[in-house]
Amino acid sequence: MRPPMTASTAKTILRILDAPQPHWVGDGFLVHPLFADAAFTQEVSPFLMFDYAAPVKFPPADKPPGVGPHPHKGFETITIVYAGELEHRDSAGHSGQIGPGDVQWMTAGSGLLHEEFHAREAAKRGGLVSMSQLWVNLPKRDKSAAPRYQDIRASDIPNVAVPGGQGVVRVIAGSFHGHKGPASTFTRVHVWDMRLKKGDRFTITLDAGDAALLPVLSGRVHINGETEVAATRCITFSQAGASFELEALEDALLLFLGGEPIDEPIAAYGPFVMNTQDEIRDAIMEFRAGKMGTL
After folding, report:
1. Are strands 66-72 and 220-223 parallel, antiparallel or unpaired?
2. Residue 113, Cβ neighbours under 10 Å: how many?
3. Per-residue pLDDT tens for 53-85?
4. Measured between alpha carbons, how far is 20 from 33 in angstroms, rounded to an integer?
5. Are the C-beta atoms of 260 and 230 separated by less than 8 Å?
6. Which of the residues 14, 75, 287, 289 has the least number of beta carbons within 10 Å of its own beta carbon?
């Protein structure tokens, strides 16, 4: 038997965020905003926003659904595909296509334009599309970093068996039980794509003081043996303590998010995330002046 966690070692639940009604992003993604009213606040730092597009069946289309050119500055976007295929490109010259299990990790940094659509050939066939997109903040020192793109294929991501269970943890960033993810990050963050089986039960342990968030995409889980949480909700944990116990009450898909909070002011306006409103105004002027490139 594992020793019980004590009050001094256990992370406690701060809130269970219930996503508002889903909304369309462009015409290609019906998303649940799982951070709800905690988005762009210190409660979810170092993360900013998280959208989950549950599986939707699209009819065949000659014009791929998606989102046209739009700017980003001051943060990173991480897109994980669960079903379907996406094409993307940006004004820094990056482009590509990702499919189930693949990850697109884009650093907007000093600013760029970006667009993403259902892949053309996949759109012609139609079918299920499901993905998630996470926004990760950059500290002030890195908000002017040159834009970059990490094309992370499913085969690059370690698949780690759940301790004593049947599920799998895909380590995209950070580390889990000695397995390190392939993503290069500016701050210490953990991003784990968790596919649990009913009955899986284990303890997640982080550095003391780390942030911890657990968006539940499908299924039901138990936290610390006492709180049940169902799909399209996100759990935020106390920074105090280092561990919590996770149990899958049924097969579940989750995305664990953890890391060192960024203790800096957050100024956000649409696709720009800076530290002050003056910096937001500067970003808008740069975009209008064409300084973030063209597509």
Report:
1. unpaired
2. 22
3. 999 999 999 999 999 999 999 999 999 999 999
4. 7
5. no
6. 289
* 108 close to 75: Cβ distance less than 8 angstroms: yes
CA-based nearest residue to 208, from 147, 143, 151, 260? 260
Cis peptide before 147 (omega within 30 of 0): no
| Local structure of residue 141 (DSSP, 8 states) | G
DSSP-assigned letters across all residues of 167-200 = -EEEEEESEETTEEPS---SS-EEEEEEEE-TT-
Do residues 20 and 52 make contact, with C-beta atoms less than 8 angstroms apart?
no
Check if the beta carbon of residue 94 is closer than 8 Å to that of residue 106. Answer: yes
How many residues would you count in the chain? 295
In whole angstroms, give the CA distance from residue 71 to residue 295. Answer: 11
Helix (H) or strand (E) holding 215: strand 211-218
pTM: 0.95
Two tokens, residue 156 = 């690059």
Secondary structure class of 276 (helix, strand, coil): coil
